[in-house]
Amino acid sequence: MLDDYPGNAIKLAHAMGICGDQLVSAEISLAGPAATESIADEQCISISGGGNKISRQSLPLPYYTNEYKTFAAPNQFGSNITPKEGSKIAVLSTGPWNAPTQEFKCAKLSSGDMKTASKVPEDWMNMMPDCTIPRSPSCGGTVVEDGLTDQCAGKEIPTVQDPVMLTLKIKAPMNARAFQFNLFFLSAEYPGTACSSSAFNDFFFALLDSEHNTKYPDDEYQNPYDKNLGKDAKGNFVGVDLAPEGLFTVCDKSNSSNNYREFCEDATLLQGTGFDGMSAGSGGTGWLTTRGNVVPGETITLRLAIFEQGTVWTYGPDHSYDSTVLLDGFKWLPKPAKAGTGQY
Predict the structure, then answer these.
(1) Is the pTM of this model over 0.90?
(2) Within the chain, where are the H helices?
(3) Are 285 and 249 in contact (CB under 8 A)?
(4) Secondary structure (DSSP) of 176-211
(5) Where are the domains of the chain?
(6) Residues above pLDDT 70, as percent of the chain
């Protein structure tokens, strides 16, 4: 049902493979408290600084109507991407999940503006240097050091656009020491904004709250200090900035303007997704694996979110060039594992 956000959250969890008594609760929300943004709403702007900006309060929940849905649990994605396990895939998107856009002049639903903006989780941002979302290390940024606290004291929590977050509370079995799930990130921003000096790349994070590090401080494999499992081994967030590491493999190798085309393997997976045939290019990671560690029997909280950030030169805050993440294949592991995301 369109207005049944709790029911749809449960469907997303089931699509990932989280079922039965192990699923304590599921919730769909923005990435944090709803925010207000200055934007040339419902206007198409062709020159920098044009349009009449208004103060627009975000919708309280991710956009979801018959015409524009920012999350879904389909049997497959596009023509060729099928579930890793089970019969469905959980989908979160910064635009219409089945009709992503590559429009940057218009602040309209048909152009990917889902009328939402929010803060990001404060507990996470308090561990980010100077309360800012950092650049990826492979794009000139630095690895976020452990031990940072209260970085947002006296500062504004960053605002992001078109956020969708699925929060899951899951009870770990008594024989589980870790878990994993698969993700597939696709973006209309690839390859053009990879390592861009303008911070408007879309990102996905997977924040894990677990007692593992406290219970097992001497374990070889620890969960990230900042809780985010959505990073590769070098600390790059899941997003188009994974391209320099060769993790964007679903793309067109013949695109001569793609500086990362050497890593492209199979563009056929884009067929029917809406990311195929985009004039400025597009691409995806293929299925990656995300892992985290748990204490047997504990109830963990897993926050999975995708969002846009930054400002475009036309209408205002960036709601353009959509990205989508597919989630599937959740399973428990009997031994601790290296936490993070990669081609495992």
Answers:
(1) yes
(2) 5-16, 122-125, 212-215
(3) yes
(4) -SEEEEEEEEEETTTTTTTT-SS----EEEEEEE-S
(5) 5-240+282-339
(6) 97
